[in-house]
Amino acid sequence: MSRDKNYDEAFKESITNPDSFWAKAAEDVRWVKKWEKVLDESGKPFYRWFTGGLLNTCYNALDCHVEQGRADQTAVIYDSPVTGVVRKITYREMLDDVSRFAGALKGLGVSKGDTVVVYMPMIPQALVAVLACARLGAVHSVVFGGFAPNELAIRIDDAKPKVIISASCGIEGAKVISYKPLLDGAVKIAKHKPGNCIIYQRPQMKADLVEGRDHDWEELAKKAEPASCVPVTATDPLYILYTSGTTGRPKGVMRDHGGHVVALKWSMKNIYDVKPGDVYWAASDVGWVVGHSYIIYAPLFMGCTTVLYEGKPVGTPDPGAFWRVIAQHGVNVLFTAPTAFRAIKREDPEATCLKKYDISSLKYLFLAGERLDPDTYYWASKILGRPVIDHWWQTETGWPIAANCLGIEALPVKAGSPTKPVPGYNVMIVDASGKELPRGEEGYVVIKLPLPPGCLPTLWNDDKRYLEYVEEIPGYYITGDGGYFDKDGYLFIMGRIDDVINVAGHRLSTGAMEEIVSKHRDVAECAVLGANDQLKGEVPIGFVVLKAGVTRTHDEIVKELVQMVRDEIGAVACFKQAAVVAALPKTRSGKTLRGTIKKIANGEKFTVPSTIEDPAVLTAIEESARKIGFGKK
Ligand code: COA
Ligand code: AMP
Predict the structure, then answer these.
(1) Mean pLDDT along residues 554-572
(2) Total tally of structural domains belonging to the chain
(3) Contact 477 CB / ligand 1 (< 6 Å)
(4) Is 132 in a helix, a strand, or coil?
């Protein structure tokens, strides 16, 4: 596909003529049979792209490159400072491993349309598992390793997998985390019982296998016949990725095949400005959307080398870890979350570790997952001396909504803004009634339908819940973020307007945490909200009202609450602080004033809401927030 001339033209064409815009992009994809319709609006507000088309996602990630002369190019660099392993895997080797593992899945009865849950650490087998599903037309659902059994069980019950694929352990810095008891615990809790589990035994820790249900990965793969690609329709589901909503029940974001390949490939060229053969590193986790799109799929669709890094930005072994990986593997583009850079800055503010490495291969740093605060932006720009690009997106879209599209036209950067809407996304700012707001005014960030290819066509088995995104303001998709356009048309994302928070770039639901805290026998009611944190952006904190007559110490109760959230959601929730208060501030109609509590916790100015029942409660909240290290200093 020829490169679009400039941003304004590309954007305009994508909105006024989406059919021709995306048909051009789709020419870059290998189809078994071309589509009949580019944009299918017949089921509005459910939109479909490339209906009638047939393709295979795994073919576009692996086979086509092997056929076109990239067989011996490295497809994946597995760099694991926590195990001391660096392994390069060529496209040919990946294809062999994936075909064989797909054969193993087939042997267990997995076929097109079946679901498979993948609960894996950051090892190459996670990529093999995912791509093998895609090869068979099976629907994978990767669950982040940091989630506790209860969260895994919720996903198992919703996805109803035929097979679960896991590993004996994950390695988090210096900790070896045994996965098998977590998996067994989840299967025990879940109502749906998968017939088979496949366990990759890592040398750091072997897991006991359950006879008749569990299979050893290596043994199964050794015996399997390689499986070939199964053509699927463009609109068939490729994966489900559960993400936090405002309640304890996660949303199963569904992604289909055709639009996904088209959009991701387009994004590599036009947003990230990479070409086949480049080394692309998304320092995230395969359990998050960034990992799906930019560790696994997009770099492979593009014929790049993707880096799979099993380590942290600091402590594995030091804050020079990222520079070491860039230098050692000639990384051209790095993509991570601002938190990672804040962690490096905290340990090495002068970036002295950087002096030890030659990072001349690096062209750009892309950041997403949470707001990029100007301090981090300026620091990263200064130490790297290269473009630092903030871009905004979410699990639902699967690829960036707003970015500086470097492959189209590099626009001047404004700190605090992810630049402008990416072609395909008609972003608008509206008020609660759906009225478009003028530039400079803050409101709800919405996207005029249809969403471009690659975004969620619906939620897994839950069309009704999908409609919540698009029916509240008819004709628009509600992103859940608040923000504004400045006078030059630059978008500023100011944060979530619902109960979703971002902790170290990880999306979590305060509503889900409240549900858990409320279950404690001594708790009468509670509010959990995200408070600003210098490292992680936000952390959840709780304010708890106890039942009358409770005599146990507050410390004891808070400790139990912290443990409950850790046990039910997982360590990744980072719920570590809560304060016991006599009452929560409420409106006269009984609604908890969470927004006001949040402002107090962040030490921000607030006006006492006119609807408040008892303003004196706010003073008590201020004092409690201070006691746990928040509020006005
Ligand atoms: N499996 C099991 N446990 C996990 C896990 C996994 N895959 N990922 C995280 N955890 C655990 C951690 O060990 C930690 O446990 P602890 O409370 O017992 O210490 C807890 O979950 C919180 O993890 P995290 O928020 O990552 O904090 P951290 O202190 O371990 O690391 C950073 C802090 C900033 C270094 C880390 O968050 C980071 O690298 N962030 C980069 C951002 C990123 O990758 N975002 C993804 C979206 S782009
Ligand atoms: P997730 O679904 O985990 O990718 O989280 C999506 C949410 O993260 C968005 O709705 C935003 O609230 C936030 N987010 C992601 N990227 C950015 C960014 N560049 N700037 C501001 N917020 C962001």
Answers:
(1) 96
(2) 2
(3) no
(4) helix
* Full residue range of the structural domain in which residue 220 is found: 7-311+391-478
pLDDT tens digits, 60-110: 999 999 999 999 999 999 999 999 999 999 999 999 999 999 999 999 999
Residue with tokens 């905004």: 392
CA-to-CA distance for 556 and 274, rounded, in angstroms? 53
Q: Which atom of ligand 1 lies nearest, measured to the CA of 504?
A: 37
Q: Of the candidates 241, 244, 109, 122, which has an alpha carbon nearest to the alpha carbon of residue 179?
A: 122
- CA 448 to centroid of ligand 2, rounded, Å: 18
- In whole angstroms, what is the distance from residue 86 CA to residue 73 CA? 16
Element (H, E) at 258: helix 257-270
CATH number of the domain to which 176 belongs:
3.40.50.12780
- Which atom of ligand 2 is the closest one to the Cα of 402? 19
Instruction: Answer yes or no: is the C-beta of 338 below 6 A from any ligand 1 atom.
Output: no
Give burial (CB, 10 Å; 0-12/13-18/19+) of 369.
buried
Q: Is 351:359 a contact under the CB 8 Å cutoff?
A: no
Cβ–Cβ < 8 Å for 252, 297: no
Indicate if the alpha-carbon torsion angle 179, 184, 185, 186 is positive or negative: positive
Last residue of a domain, one of 446, 478, 510: 478
Give the confidence band of 5 by pLDDT, cuts at 50, 70, 90.
low
Q: Kindly tell me the burial class for residue 144, based on how many C-beta atoms sit within 10 Å of its own C-beta (0-12, 13-18, 19 or more).
A: buried
Q: Which two tokens stand for residue 311?
A: 């380590």
Alpha carbon distances (Å) from 501 to 291, 383, 447? 19, 29, 21
Q: Whose CA is nearest to atom 19 of ligand 2?
A: 392
My answer on whether 517 and 578 are in the same domain is yes
* Shared-domain flag, residues 467 and 508: no
Instruction: Return d(Cα 379, Cα 369) in angstroms, integer.
Output: 18
Ligand 1 atom with minimal separation from the 287 CA? 7
Measured from the Cα of 121, ligand 1's closest atom is: 7
For atom 14 of ligand 2, the residue with the nearest CA is 370
